Amino acid sequence: MMKETVTKDKEKNLQLVMSIIVDAGNAKALAVKAIKEAKIGNQDTAQATLRKARDVLTDAHNAQTEMLMQEAQENYDVVTLLTVHSQDHLMTAITYCDLAADFIDIYNKLNKF
C-alpha cells in the first residue's frame, strides 16, 4: 500500500513537472509571436497574443504552486534534473512575457512615427 502511494506521488510530480515545461514553452512561444506582431504593426494581435501567453503562463505557475504546496507539507520527491529544467523553462517564459510587454509598447510608439 505504501509503495502504491509513493508511485502515485511520483507520477503526480512528473505530471506537474511536464505541465510546467509544456505550458512555459507555449507561453514563451506566444510571447515571441506577440513581439513579432508588434514589430509589423499589428498591435491588437500583439496584445491579444501576449494576454494568451500570460494565461498559459498562469497554468505553468499553478503547477509550480502545487509542487511548492506539496513540499511545504513535506510531501516531496527528490529534486531531479527534469524538475530543475522545468523551473528554468518557467523563469525564461516569465522573462519573455515581461520583455514582450515592453517591446510591444516600444513598437507601438515607433509605429506611430
Spell out the blueprint of helices and strands.
Layout: H1 2-39, H2 43-72, H3 81-111
**Average pLDDT across residues?**
91
Amino- and carboxy-terminal Cα gap? 69 Å
Biggest β-sheet, characterized? none
Low-pLDDT segments, ≥5 res: none
Order of helices and strands: HHH
Number of helices: 3
Structural class: mainly alpha
Rg of Cα set: 18 Å
For the secondary structure, the number of strands is: 0
Q: What percentage of the residues does DSSP assign to strands (E)?
A: under 5%
Characterize this entry briefly.
With 113 residues, this protein is mainly α. 88% of the residues lie in helices and 0% in strands. Helix 1 (2-39) packs antiparallel against helix 2 (43-72), helix 1 packs parallel to helix 3 (81-111) and helix 2 (43-72) packs antiparallel against helix 3 (81-111).
